């Protein structure tokens, strides 16, 4: 068996020698960019920030486990088992945005382009927009995921048996989108036309928001733990199989009645995906430590990191698409400048 098996390709372009290897020294659960600084979110207490050629610098953000993280490129917002919602900015400053009155775990966080922040603890979703006071919404079961709509102040709250759509600035009753099962993550399409959840079972579920028509996306051998919209939102890349599953969303019907594209097959499960911000390129991390850059048009692959390590836990591009960061579950990490 060779060191790397890129599907059926006889040879593959490699940029592994151009990757700056990093040893974070702690388990990593996510990575985000603050400008051009890569910030690796540890599973416990710290975010490890890499500025220029400097070594990773630990910044303490929580007094325990970090359970969730999101970023808008200007700040990273995290939730912890210390009951706090914290934000880290590009200057390395940490601000505590909220502390749960009951010190419950903060399970999910979300950021709106206008700066509004949402978080959840148990069955309650919270939102704070600008200088407005905090608002909350209770849902039938523990919140599985949060996502802001790209237009307007609307929050999707995923939970058992469906998703609740909440307009916190309106008095109208929140809209409920039902589908049996446990919904663990949620995302709006960039054009605001579709809503998709990742389920506890090995499937995605979606709704066309114009008429709430259901979209079932099944056939995965494992649970989908990572998904990402392509530049322009014409496709949704997902983990959950031994190849990247790419669902088409260019038409008004989305993936209804269509087969997904399947890219970059390996003898390992895809564990993380991230799409380039401007081009039809994605990067996929695998359970054996492989990282591949993939061109969506024809499936051409570039090897970024060889197999033989822990599963890839996190991938991220900077906003300009010139830097790619990745990290394995054990803290082995790297940055590639393109």
Automatic annotation (TrEMBL):
Pfam families: WD40. InterPro entries: Quinoprotein_ADH-like_sf, WD40/YVTN_repeat-like_dom_sf, WD40_rpt. SUPFAM superfamilies: Quinoprotein alcohol dehydrogenase-like. It comes from the Bacteria. This is WD40 repeat.
């Amino acid at each position: 068996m060779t060191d790397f098996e890129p599907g059926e390709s006889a040879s593959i372009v490699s940029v592994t020698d151009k990757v700056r290897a990093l040893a974070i020294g702690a388990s990593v659960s996510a990575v985000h960019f603050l400008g051009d600084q890569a910030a690796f979110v540890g599973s416990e207490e710290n975010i490890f920030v890499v500025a220029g050629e400097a070594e990773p610098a630990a910044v303490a953000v929580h007094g325990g486990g970090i359970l969730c993280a999101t970023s808008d490129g200007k700040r990273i917002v995290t939730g912890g088992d210390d009951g706090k919602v914290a934000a880290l900015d590009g200057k390395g400053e940490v601000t505590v945005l909220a502390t749960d009155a009951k010190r419950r775990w903060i399970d999910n966080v979300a950021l709106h382009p206008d700066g509004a922040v949402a978080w959840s603890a148990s069955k309650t979703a919270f939102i704070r927009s600008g200088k407005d006071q905090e608002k909350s919404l209770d849902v039938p079961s523990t919140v599985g995921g949060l996502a802001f709509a790209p237009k307007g102040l609307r929050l999707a709250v995923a939970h058992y048996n469906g998703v609740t759509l909440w307009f916190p600035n309106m008095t109208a009753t929140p809209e409920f989108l039902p589908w049996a099962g446990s919904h663990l993550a949620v995302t709006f399409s960039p054009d605001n036309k579709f809503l998709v959840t990742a389920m506890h079972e090995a499937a995605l579920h979606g709704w066309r928001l114009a008429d709430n028509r259901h979209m079932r996306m099944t056939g995965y051998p494992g649970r989908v733990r990572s998904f990402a919209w392509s530049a322009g939102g014409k496709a949704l890349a997902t983990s959950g199989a031994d190849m990247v599953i790419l669902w088409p969303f260019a038409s008004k019907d989305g993936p209804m009645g269509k087969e997904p594209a399947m890219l970059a097959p390996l003898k390992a499960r895809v564990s993380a995906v991230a799409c380039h911000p401007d081009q039809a390129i994605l990067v996929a991390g695998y359970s054996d430590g492989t990282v591949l850059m993939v061109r969506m048009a024809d499936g051409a692959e570039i090897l970024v990191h060889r197999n033989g390590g822990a599963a890839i836990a996190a991938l991220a591009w900077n906003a300009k698409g010139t830097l790619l960061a990745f990290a394995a579950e054990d803290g082995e990490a790297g940055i590639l400048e393109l």
